[in-house]
Amino acid sequence: MKRIFISSFSIVCSFALCFLGLNLTASAKSLGDIYGYNNLGICNIAEGNINIREQASTDSNLVGQLPANAGCEIVQTVGEWSFIKSGEVEGYVISEYLLTGDAAWDKAVELAEYIATSTTGGLRVRAESNTGCDIIYQLSDGEEVTIIENTQDNEWIKVQICEGVVGYVCAEYVDVDLSLKTAIVPKIVEKRDRITKTNN
What we know:
By secondary structure, the protein is α+β, with helices and mostly antiparallel strands.
């Protein structure tokens, strides 16, 4: 049985936002119930990632990175730093790089995209939509990638691993939902850096 699914709530919200002309801020906050955010922050940089630190200091250990346009829950603000939770990562980021308040909710409507989450470790990402082609990457269990498009038969999903690197995953081994990108842990950052360098 395929494990690909799209939340019915997500479909309803997408339809409402596209066709009903509701107030964007109110609609986005309704989406927050699905995303799990109460105090939404958006990584407000053009490209790349911002560092997430264990403590509110640039000398503190790196616990993850928040990609451009990714979402997070802002738990509290301490001086120039915000303590956030995003995906499996929690820690401190410099507040000036976060879009907050109504501006963040408005932006969430624009940024929401379909995300594929691997349900198994070592899920192969292939260069083409068949098992006879090259493996270009392997997804860790729980790793998220952005969906670009489904192939016609829905057995394969075209995804973007990182900028400039796209491939196909078997739909049976991912869960799909409408969401915002979230933080990535250091080991995933290192994996994606390696494949980016290989393809440049």
